[in-house]
Amino acid sequence: MMTRRSLFRSAAAAGGLSLLPRGAFAGGARASGFWYPEETDPHERTFMQWPVNPAVHDDADFLYDLQATIADLASTIAEFEPVVLMAAAEHHKAIRKLVSGAVELWDIPTDDLWCRDSGPSFVIDGKGGLAVTQFNFNGWGGKQVHANDGKIAALVAGRLGLPVFDAGLVGEAGGVETDGHGTLIAHESTFINPNRNKGSKAEITAMLLETMGAEKMIWAPGIIGADITDYHIDALARFVKPGQIVIQMGEEPDPEDPWSVSAFETHDILAAATDAEGRKLDLVILPEPYDLRVDSPDFVSSYVNYYVCNGAVIAAEFGDKAADAEAAEILADLYPGREIVMLNVDPVGEVGGGIHCATHEQPKV
């Protein structure tokens, strides 16, 4: 079975901070006064994708379990806000048997489930304007077939009648986190990588800031080649709000584990950084679960890969009762007034992702 963590090759080079010169990349969102808002802002709906391509998921029994998990996730989110599940029309009858009646089905063909990466990324202008900002998804650097997934963002923009900004960046929204107020964090390994983007670090930084409508970039090295995403930041660290980041890590680094070494490296870079408004970042630690239901080196057990929807935080639980409970308690403290819903999404973890990877919000304007 193919997973998103596969071939560890090498670590990326050291990271730093960059600022975008004003006026660059007139085709991007930032030049037109648009920006990618906070996930905690009110949503119009959630988008999701149906995993179906046998070239990606060649085990029919496992694919059914994966589809059932995506259906359960869609139905759960639909209790809090509208959900659109995208799939070719030929699959709708089977999907309807698995999802609640509150889930809307759109006839947009898909390959896989990773809507955070191949789905539409929305930007706003604060005056009621809404647009799609294009990441030009290329299958994580050509590692996976994406004949359908590569078209989804543009198809959604067309169906909604929205303009599309394109600064020329190639990558995925799961590879970058924003506070919605000018600051981005990301791993260099995801974007400053010839399988996505050519050019210098400064040029790629400028494209990313233009794509997201942001002012300041905080880079950490990450890891090239350890998984299909080249280490997306949203499996490790997320903005809770401007000035605050939640990050998942163990008590001390394991020098034999490249993921552990990279996590502590990212933590130290973030702890030393300031945001676009000059604030030091408050870092909140989420625990690592150890007593897992799934015994696989490729399994992704990230509490940080949660999704914030209207009135709730949808997060994963992994069967480690103590760590699951601690994670739920920390998330409740971080998101007061929102219901914390913990789901078993193990099949998604087995293919290398989590709840945030499978969802993408449309902000309400």
Task: Describe what you observe in this structure.
The protein is of the alpha/beta class and 365 residues long. It has helices spanning 60-77, 92-96, 115-118, 139-142, 152-160, 188-191, 201-212, 258-272, 321-334, 346-350; strands at 10-11, 17-19, 43-49, 83-87, 103-107, 122-124, 130-133, 164-165, 176-178, 183-187, 216-220, 223-224, 237-241, 244-248, 282-286, 307-309, 312-316, 339-343, 360-363. It has one domain: L-arginine/glycine Amidinotransferase, Chain A (5-stranded Propeller), CATH 3.75.10.10.
Summarize the entry for a quick read:
The chain is α/β, with parallel strands linked by helices and 365 residues long. It is built from ten helices and 19 strands.
- How large is the count of helical segments? 10
- C-alpha geometry: globular
CATH superfamily descriptor: L-arginine/glycine Amidinotransferase, Chain A
Instruction: Classify the oligomer.
Output: single chain
Q: How many domains make up the 3D coordinates? A: 1
Please supply descriptive tags for the structure shown above:
single chain; 365 residues; alpha/beta; L-arginine/glycine Amidinotransferase, Chain A; 4-stranded mixed beta sheet; 19 strands; 21% strand
